[in-house]
From TrEMBL:
PANTHER family, alphabetized: RIBOSOMAL-PROTEIN-SERINE ACETYLTRANSFERASE
Source organism, top-level taxon: Archaea
Domain called N-acetyltransferase: residue spans: 12-168
The name this protein goes by in its record: Acetyltransferase
Alphabetical UniProt keywords: Transferase
PROSITE patterns reported in the protein's UniProt record: GNAT
A GO molecular function held by the record: protein-N-terminal-alanine acetyltransferase activity
Taxonomic source organism: Natrinema saccharevitans
Pfam families in alphabetical order: Acetyltransf_3 (PF13302)
Any single GO CC term annotated in Swiss-Prot or TrEMBL for this entry: cytoplasm
Matches recorded under InterPro entries: Acyl_CoA_acyltransferase, GNAT_dom, Ribosomal_N-acetyltransferase
């Protein structure tokens, strides 16, 4: 495949998700270490992954990219729920469990946030994280996100209702961090 890198980082690149990536994505999203922290509760087959690709990834309502390290996929990151009038969107990501602790998620999030502010002209980026996902909370805080609130018992995961923490990052906070 020709180089289709969209955003280049020091250790990771972000590129468009292609149909050839669907088997990787289907296998990854069925891993409990991925579906639990992102709130999945049902298995995903190839047809459902294809539908997600066709309707969401190929849709006009967001930006969905594959995170690669040394040209190998290590996760995904997306910007969705974009409200152009209000200038805000929600970032979401997952990293292959074998690649946790490498800093790939942090760098990918920094690339996506910079793109959202610099290229899309957004004013605010939001994120939500389950209370049990401390690694993701640390990632967001390291990038500059601020915890803004908690929705109690917001999702049903692993047989119990779980709290969801809401995070936000304003453009000026990001710019202040850069200087």
């Amino acid at each position: 495949m020709p180089d289709s890198t969209f955003l280049t980082g020091e250790r990771v690149d972000l590129r468009p998700i292609e149909e050839a990536d669907l088997d990787y994505l289907r296998d990854a999203i069925n891993d409990p270490a991925i579906w639990r922290p992102i709130g999945g509760s049902r298995p995903i087959n190839r047809k459902q992954e294809q539908e997600f690709f066709d309707e969401v990834v190929c849709g006009d309502d967001g930006v969905h990219l594959l995170i690669t390290a040394d040209d190998a996929p290590v996760g995904t990151i997306g910007l969705r729920e974009i409200d152009w009038e209000a200038g805000r969107g929600e970032v979401g990501y997952w990293i292959d469990p074998d690649e946790h602790g490498q800093g790939y998620g942090t760098e990918a999030t920094e690339l996506m946030v910079a793109y959202a502010f610099d290229q899309l002209g957004l004013h605010r980026i939001e994120a939500r994280v389950f209370e049990f996902n401390e690694a993701s909370q640390r990632l967001l805080e390291s990038v500059g996100f601020v915890r803004e609130g908690t929705s109690r018992e917001f999702e049903f995961v692993d047989g119990e209702y779980r709290d969801t923490h809401w995070y936000g990052l304003l453009e000026d906070e990001w710019r202040d961090r850069e200087s």
